[in-house]
């Protein structure tokens, strides 16, 4: 099962690495004044949130290669791409809500003080947004750990697939129990880390 845990952690790490920055970029576009860009990102979020992640994995791995041989990728890159694009849509809405919760007076004050947009977001707006969105972002991270089990559709040796193979081989349900315990341990560790981060950046100490 260590091989399955390795795949879970690898997929979790790279999805988080790519999805959160992409989500921030999409959120910034969503609150911009460019109507066309807002419409495009709205459609993207609607598709990603409105269709199951399992179907998106199947589309990237099974459908795209039929369109063109150049769109054929290995299993792990496909999983990372699909998970990152999907989760970025959810993070985008979380960060958009966080941006819209910031008082408009702070944007105006930053302009009066002569801050350019990049400096304003980097030093004033985004630090506040991060504090406010930590709980929902944390929930998505915990969900991501469990969603990694969906890669079984790509025949990857993730934790759930290995448990299934072991169960079929031993005619026992105990491997599923072991897999469940491993997932619980991983989410428990992540929950404690997120709790520590939330307390560290809490407004009220």
UniProtKB/TrEMBL annotation:
Membrane-topology annotation of the record: Multi-pass membrane protein
Cross-referenced InterPro entries: AA_ABC_transptr_permease_3TM, ArtM/GltK/GlnP/TcyL/YhdX-like, MetI-like, MetI-like_sf
Pfam families, per the entry: BPD_transp_1
Regions that span the bilayer: 12-31, 43-64, 76-94, 176-197
Keywords attached to this entry: Amino-acid transport, Cell membrane, Membrane, Transmembrane, Transmembrane helix, Transport
Localization per record: Cell membrane
Boundaries of every ABC transmembrane type-1 domain copy: 5-195
Entries under SUPFAM superfamilies matching the protein: MetI-like
Domain of life: Bacteria
UniProt key word ATP-binding: no
UniProt KW Transport keyword: yes
Family: Belongs to the binding-protein-dependent transport system permease family.
Record protein name field: Amino acid ABC transporter permease
Gene source species: Peptostreptococcus canis
Taxonomic placement: Bacteria, Bacillati, Bacillota, Clostridia, Peptostreptococcales
């Amino acid at each position: 099962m260590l091989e399955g845990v390795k795949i879970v952690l690898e997929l979790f790490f790279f999805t988080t690495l790519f999805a959160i920055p992409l989500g921030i970029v999409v959120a910034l576009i969503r609150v911009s004044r460019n109507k066309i860009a807002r419409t495009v990102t709205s459609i993207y979020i609607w598709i990603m949130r409105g269709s199951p992640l399992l179907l998106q994995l199947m589309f990237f791995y099974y459908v795209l290669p039929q369109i063109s041989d150049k769109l054929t990728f290995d299993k792990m890159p496909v999983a990372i791409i699909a998970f990152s694009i999907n989760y970025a849509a959810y993070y985008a809405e979380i960060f958009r809500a966080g941006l819209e919760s910031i008082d408009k007076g702070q944007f105006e004050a930053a302009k009066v003080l002569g801050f350019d947009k990049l400096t304003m977001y980097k030093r004033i707006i985004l630090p506040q947004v991060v504090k406010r969105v930590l709980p929902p972002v944390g929930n998505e991270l915990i969900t991501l750990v469990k969603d990694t089990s969906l890669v079984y559709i790509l025949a990857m040796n993730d934790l759930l697939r290995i448990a299934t193979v072991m169960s079929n081989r031993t005619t026992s349900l105990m491997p599923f129990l072991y897999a469940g315990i491993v997932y619980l341990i991983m989410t428990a560790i992540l929950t404690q880390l997120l709790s520590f981060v939330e307390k560290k950046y809490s407004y009220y100490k």
